Automatic annotation (TrEMBL):
Chain positions covered by the region annotation Disordered: 46-77
Molecular function per GO: rRNA binding; structural constituent of ribosome
Lineage, opening ranks: Bacteria, Pseudomonadati, Bacteroidota, Flavobacteriia, Flavobacteriales
SUPFAM superfamilies according to UniProt: Ribosomal protein L4 (SSF52166)
Protein name according to UniProt: Large ribosomal subunit protein uL4
UniProt KW rRNA-binding keyword: yes
Organism: Zobellia amurskyensis
Amino acid sequence: MKVAVLDIKGKETGRKADLSDAVFAIEPNDHAVYLDVKQYLAHQRQGTHKAKERAEIAGSTRKIKKQKGTGTARAGSIKSPIFRGGGRIFGPRPKDYGQKLNKNVKRLARKSALSIKSKEQAILVVEDFNFDVPKTKDFKGVLKSLGLENKKSLFVLGDSNNSVYLSSRNLKGSEVVTSSEISTYKILNASSIVLLESALEGLESNLTK
């Protein structure tokens, strides 16, 4: 599949990029996409929730009233869950929400997501660019030229580029990743995918192993 290569002004350079059909034109597997997105979101959970139970509450161990003769229920500890300030019954404990997923399923999910975006004509190929110094204004200029100013966009670089990354960091709707950091969730969450020329080889290599 041939796609025109654009410059950062949004104009065609006269060159064409060849997008592999094995990555950008497969029949999407919805279940693989679901599993990969589910795993990604599960890994975002810290799992550090914790409530103190009866044995962890700081308080006196004295029997708070005599066993008989009070006319009320027996009570042996101020730390009992039935009293205010007592421990919590079956409270949340730290937990790892991570899920395992086969590498081949993850590759299939990412290829499916890219194929969906390709079918929607939401993939742009842009020649490599750089900024002399990190500047949000310069990155906003690129977004405006590509018609992505008010859209969610995902820029995929071949290698890490600190200037481009820092220039985009303050913009809520844009994200910059390398070809090895791309995920199914990030692909689907963006309205448009911007692939830099240097990212194509690494992306296709990672997804066709």
